[in-house]
Structures are given as C-alpha cells and as structure tokens.
Write a structure and sequence with these properties.
Helix 2 crosses helix 5 and helix 3 (77-85) packs across helix 5 (103-113). The chain has a single domain, classed as Cupredoxins -  blue copper proteins (Immunoglobulin-like, Sandwich), CATH 2.60.40. The longest helix is centred in the N-terminal third of the chain and has 16 residues, at 2-17. It has helices spanning 2-17, 22-37, 77-85, 87-90, 103-113; strands spanning 67-68, 73-74. The protein contains 5 helices and 2 strands, in the order H-H-E-E-H-H-H. A two-stranded antiparallel ribbon has the order 1-2. By secondary structure, the chain is mainly α.
Length: 117
C-alpha cells in the first residue's frame, strides 16, 4: 500500500512538473475513478468511455448548476464530494447508492464533475 501511495505521489509530482495544477491532476484521477466505480452505468457523463446510463440524471453541465440532488443540496465542492460518497447523508430520498469509497476518491470524482460546465 505504501508503494502505491508513493507511486501516486511520484506521478502527481511529475504531472505538476509538466505544468498541471493539483486540481487538474485530481480531476484526471476522478475521471478514471468514475470509470472504475461504474458511475456511467446510471449516468450520462461527458468524457467517460463506455455505455452511458439513463437511470440517474445526465451530468453534463453539472458544474454550472446551483444545486445537486434535485435542488436539495447546494453545489459546492464539499457537498458534491459528500454526496458522491454517501448520497443518503444529504438527501435521504436519493436513489443513488452509497459506494463506501474513501474521501480522496469522492473528492477526485467531485473535482472531475466540477469540470463539466
């Protein structure tokens, strides 16, 4: 596990050296995690390979929306990450399942979603 964290840190440093900001790196990681967690099974998500679902709302333009979860939750980086991680904690009526993901994964996914303007 330490080797994986070290490798991730090394990759992040190399990308920063190539002129990418930490937010851009986190968003790129988030895009990969969206594919891993299979978010596109339920949602249509720009920039994500594979089948696009229609069970959940389309996420195109999400960063420009004032609220998430049918207008019940303000669209801030913190709330977006928390909603991605555990939707029922912010909207008990949400049909989106909690995926029991680490905070860092939820924050990275939220960083990618914030690029969808």
């Amino acid at each position: 596990m330490k080797r994986l964290a070290s490798l991730g840190m090394t990759l992040a440093l190399l990308l920063v050296a190539c002129g990418k900001s930490e937010e851009q790196i986190n968003a790129e990681r988030g895009r990969l995690l969206i594919e891993q967690y299979g978010c596109n099974v339920c949602h249509s998500i720009p920039g994500i390979a594979g089948a696009q679902g229609s069970i959940g709302p389309a996420l195109e333009g999400l960063a420009s929306r004032p609220a998430i979860s049918n207008g019940n939750v303000p669209n801030t980086p913190e709330y977006l990450a928390k909603f991605v991680q555990n939707p029922a904690s912010l909207n008990p009526a949400s049909n989106m399942p909690g995926l029991n993901m680490p905070d860092a994964d939820a924050q990275a996914i939220a960083a990618y979603l914030r690029t969808l303007k």
